[in-house]
Amino acid sequence: MSRPNLALIGATGAVGTVMRDIVSTRDDIWGEIRLVASPRSAGKTLKVRGEDVVVQALAPEVFDGIDIAIFDVPDEVAAEWVPVAAARGAIAIDKSGTFRMEPDVPLVVPEVNPQDARQRPRGIISTPNCTTLSMMAAMGALHAVYGLKELVVASYQAVSGAGVAGPARLYDEVEALAGDRSVGQTAGDVRKVLANKLSDDSPFPAPIAFNVVPWAGSYKDGGWASEEVKLRNESRKILGIPDLKVSATCVRVPVVTTHSLAVHARFERDVTVADAHRVLEAAPTVVLMDDPANGVYPTPLDVVGNDPTYVGRIRQAFDFPNTLDLFVCGDNLRKGAALNAAEIAELVAREL
Amino acid sequence: MSRPNLALIGATGAVGTVMRDIVSTRDDIWGEIRLVASPRSAGKTLKVRGEDVVVQALAPEVFDGIDIAIFDVPDEVAAEWVPVAAARGAIAIDKSGTFRMEPDVPLVVPEVNPQDARQRPRGIISTPNCTTLSMMAAMGALHAVYGLKELVVASYQAVSGAGVAGPARLYDEVEALAGDRSVGQTAGDVRKVLANKLSDDSPFPAPIAFNVVPWAGSYKDGGWASEEVKLRNESRKILGIPDLKVSATCVRVPVVTTHSLAVHARFERDVTVADAHRVLEAAPTVVLMDDPANGVYPTPLDVVGNDPTYVGRIRQAFDFPNTLDLFVCGDNLRKGAALNAAEIAELVAREL
Lengths: 352, 352
Ligand SMILES: NC(=O)c1ccc[n+]([C@@H]2O[C@H](COP(=O)([O-])OP(=O)(O)OC[C@H]3O[C@@H](n4cnc5c(N)ncnc54)[C@H](OP(=O)(O)O)[C@@H]3O)[C@@H](O)[C@H]2O)c1
Ligand SMILES: NC(=O)c1ccc[n+]([C@@H]2O[C@H](COP(=O)([O-])OP(=O)(O)OC[C@H]3O[C@@H](n4cnc5c(N)ncnc54)[C@H](OP(=O)(O)O)[C@@H]3O)[C@@H](O)[C@H]2O)c1
Hints:
Binding site for phosphate (chains A, B): 100
Distance between the termini of chain A: 7 Å
Domain Semialdehyde dehydrogenase NAD-binding (chains A, B): 5-120
Keywords (chains A, B): Amino-acid biosynthesis, Diaminopimelate biosynthesis, Lysine biosynthesis, Methionine biosynthesis, NADP, Oxidoreductase, Threonine biosynthesis
Bound molecules: NADP nicotinamide-adenine-dinucleotide phosphate
Protein name (chains A, B): Aspartate-semialdehyde dehydrogenase
Family (chains A, B): Belongs to the aspartate-semialdehyde dehydrogenase family.
Oligomer: homodimer
């Protein structure tokens, strides 16, 4: 067929901005690229593929002639508009949490389960939440060889995972606090400074500068945060292991972009550090940075802006059989969001 | 006996400064309090119990007439001088890593194993590393009732755990970066700004502002960091569980003071969230902050400067039997260091 037409819904957001950058720098297989956001942004001009494109307000007509629509919008907007896109004949690739766990919607990470993208009875393909995605390329490669059984995960999640408001708030707080070399030394001192200098309109439930906040998402039964439940359910679905054992604690940290995860992973088969190195070195979208004796391991500031999943600190657990402990970093706006959606779009486009 | 005399060795350091504050505010059971540091600090005047005291340079004579000497100095200084203090008849309470795992040196957390402080054939009592200590009051209380079997821990460690140089570096980096609302968005950008503005003399192996660094301590076989190995070995010794299974990943975060830990803990017996609440509420040095539906959980900025161990985010694991996931915060300079040493000193002093 001729070049497929692509619509980017939420083109002005944190993910949408990276999305425009990604489709502008990867092999250009697209016909028209249409940019869509809320009525607030309609008429704005944004760059994509080096050209100025006028943003359109989301409406049924924006899907006319579109083959693939990538949605990077809040859950409730996706819930309403993804089915509209599909009904108008576009294949909808959705980044929101709305459809991910529906049995007739595939949840796809192209390195792990590309075949699932072909079964899309509703014309919808979901892409996972950024925390799960940050480790999937690595864990999928290890699972394929050693058979994953259990995951215990603690996250170090960047503020841009909360959208454009996240980095804005972190920069605001850092500016409000910088220069005072006593902050963070008595309980509540930072809260007081921030209350004086900033509005309390933060995307985070506590100060995020000089702090870590053990909460991400909404409240779920049993005291779980929705992000922790997603990490469990989405990992199971992507890897195709319905009885995978998962416990996660999700924590927000004052990092702009790039999520990190401390992963404790138990496999069916024995696996050494050397085995894991071999498998991960062979994984095309994984970069191994694992030579701690020489100070080599990934940190968010060295990973941000890059596509791969970075893995380091691989250790064989002392006391748990067939178990590795490791540290993974992935750019939550790239592989964690926009890149994975772009890869799905390219996968689908090749088979149109 | 008359009031015991106390010497604080390392009185000028990060832990030593909190130590002076703590002995100045707790019940005053001491005769003389002597302040000791390196020859660099000799002659300086520092406050303790509201009085000016002249710092003495470390030398054998500083232990003359001293009943209890608390050491808050680097490992190699402790290795040399703790035995000198003991040989001169003082009971040495040592915060360094030097003696902790020696079989004839007790490793004491007063809430957990106070009886161990009585068996001190060498006249030395060790106090645990700050990461282990940050969770011990809570894990000890749960262990006493439910029997701990396994721990998987990921840490969020404050910069003051690296001594006074830690906060100084974090404040420097924050000042160098504040106001630039693009930092942290491309790989290496922060490294470049810091290389231009600051010396590369940092206690951390990577930038710590806007970053997390998965390394704490020195290199150990198998790719482990010494802090991770300590957390395993010291937890076993303090709790008296020689076969406790432990895996830990230690990560430094841009928090000034207060370590946090995401803990996945498996017990011998079934334990619900309500059970854990009951046990932790009854533990005198633990504060339960666990009502996430109403935004109640501990964060370092709300805990810093306080003595107790704060626990929240307690959840029953979905997929692991007898297992809780939880989040613990403790001030690494207080309970994690100075307070625990002061409590040991008081325990010992009562029985002199
Ligand atoms: N940030 C991440 O790391 C990340 C990772 C994984 C998943 N996600 C998910 O990706 C989606 C987008 O997140 P984000 O971080 O990019 O959020 P964001 O920065 O807040 O951007 C939201 C986007 O949605 C648009 N939008 C909002 N309401 C709309 C409406 N009624 N009609 C049409 N467009 C509307 C906004 O347009 P205007 O500018 O016109 O308001 C903007 O383009 C969310 O579902 C989020 O959960 C984000
Ligand atoms: N910070 C924490 O959270 C923490 C927690 C647990 C354990 N620790 C341990 O506690 C100890 C002290 O740590 P810190 O963080 O307080 O370090 P710090 O801030 O660097 O202070 C070091 C102290 O040791 C003194 N010192 C250094 N060399 C000396 C020498 N040759 N003779 C006599 N005194 C000497 C210093 O005196 P000058 O000022 O005169 O140099 C200073 O008082 C270390 O063993 C550390 O591993 C620290």
